[in-house]
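Researcher: Structure for this, please.
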Amino acid sequence: MSKAILRLGKETLVYGTSTVVARLLNFCLVPFYTYYLATAEYGVAATVFAIIALLNVVFLFGMDQSYLRFASEAENKKEVFQHCFYGLLLYGAVLGGMMFLFSKPLAVVVGIGAAHVNLIRLAVFILFLDMLNMIPFTKLRLQRRAWYFAGVRTASIIVNVLCNVLFIAVYKMGVESIFWANIFASLASLLLLSPVVWDELKSGPVSFNFSLQKQMLLFAWPFVPAGLASLLVSVIDKPILVKLVGLSDVGIYQANFKIGVFMMLIVSMFDQAWRPFFLSHAKDKEAKDLFAKVLTFFTAFASWVLLGLVFLMPTIIQSNIFGNFHLIAPQYWGGLNVIAPVLLGYFFYGLYINFMVGPVITKRTRVLMWITLLGAATSITVNLLLVPHVGIVGAGWAVALSYLVMAISLFSFTQKVYPLPYEYKKLVIIGLLAAAIAYAVHNAGTVLNSLQLLEFKVGLLCAYPLLMWLIIRGRKTTKGN
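Model: Predicted structure, C-alpha cell format:
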C-alpha cells in the first residue's frame, strides 16, 4: 500500500510540476494586468473568461472522461480515440459557428456590451482549440506519460505569458491582448501534441461503431450539466457581480480571487494523478483501505497549505519587499478579504475530488449532475443574499459554501455505493487542530504588533507538519478510525 501511495505522490509531483509552473507563470500576469489594465477592463476580461470556462464544458461534452474510462478497458484504443476526436471536431465546428453568428447578442446578455463583441468572437477560437487539445492530453494521462504532459502544458503557458507581455506592453492592444495570447498558446499546445494525434489517425479512420459511440455518449453526457454546475460555483459570481456591483468591482474581485490559484495548484496536481490512480487500483484487494488513507494524507497536507496562504498572502501582497511594485496594484487591495474564503473553497473542492472515487468506479456518474447543480444553486443563492450586504466578500463565501455542500453530498453518496473505511478520528483531529490554529492567530492579531504576529504565524506553520506526522502515524485502533 505504501508503495502505491508513494507512486501516486510521484505522479502528482510530475503533473504538479507542469501545473505549478503553468499556474505560477499565469499568476505572474495578475500583477501585470493590475498595473496595465483599468479595473473595469480587467472586469470585462474576467467576465468573458467566465463564459469561456462554462462553454468549454459544452464544447468538450464530457468526452475526455469518456475516453479515459473506455480506453482504459478497450482492446482497440485507437477506435476509442478516433470516435472521440472526430466527433468533437464536427460538433465543435457546428457549435463554434453558431456562437460566432450570435456573438453580438451574447455580448449584450453577459453584460460586457456590444462594444466588446470582438472578444466573444476571439473566445470561439479559444474554445475550439482547447477542445481539440483535450483528448490527446487525456491520452497522455492514461498512458502515464506525465513528463510529456508537463512539457506541453509548460510550453503553452510560456507562450501565453510572452504573448501577453508583447501585445499589452509593446503593441498596446489592450484587453484583446489576453485573448490573442490564449489563442497562440492553444495553437502551440496543439502543435506539440500533434505526434500524439497523428499516431492515432495515421492509419486512416476506423469503421464507425454505433454501439461504442452510444455507450461513450451515455457515459459522457452527465459530465456536461455536472461540469457546468461545478463551474458555476466558481464563475457565476462574475456575471452576478456585474449586475450587482459593476465591472470595476468585478476586476477588483478577480485580481484577489486569483490568489486562490495557489490552493488550486494542490488540488489540480492531485486530481491529474488521482483519477487514473484509483481506476488502475480499483480491483486491488486493499483498494478501499488505500483510498481511505489517501484522504488522510491529502487533508493533512492541504490544510497546511491552506493555513499558510491565509496567514501570509495578504501580508506579502501589501509588503514593500519588491519596492514600489506589489503582487496586486494598490487600487485592487479593497478585495483582500476575498482571499481567505476562496482558498477555503478550493480546499473543500479537494475533498470533493477525493470522494469522486465512488461514482466513477461504480459508473454512477449521473449523480454528479445533481450534486453540482446543488452546489450551483448554493452559489447563486449565497451570492444574491450576501453580495448586496457585504459586497464582493459575499461572493468569496459563496465559493466556500458551495464546494462544502458538494463535498458533503458526494461523500454521502460514495459511502452508500462504494463505502470506504476513512480514518475519521484522524480527520477530525486534523480539522480541529487547523481551526484552533486559525482561531489563535485571529486572537493574537489583537495583542501583537505586525512583526510579532508574523513570527507567531511562521512558528505555527513550521510546527504544523510535525503535528500532522504525529497524527498520521498514530496507531489505528479500529477500522475506519
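Researcher: Any notable elements?
Model: The two ends are 18 Å apart (CA to CA). Residues 476-481 have pLDDT under 50 and may be disordered.
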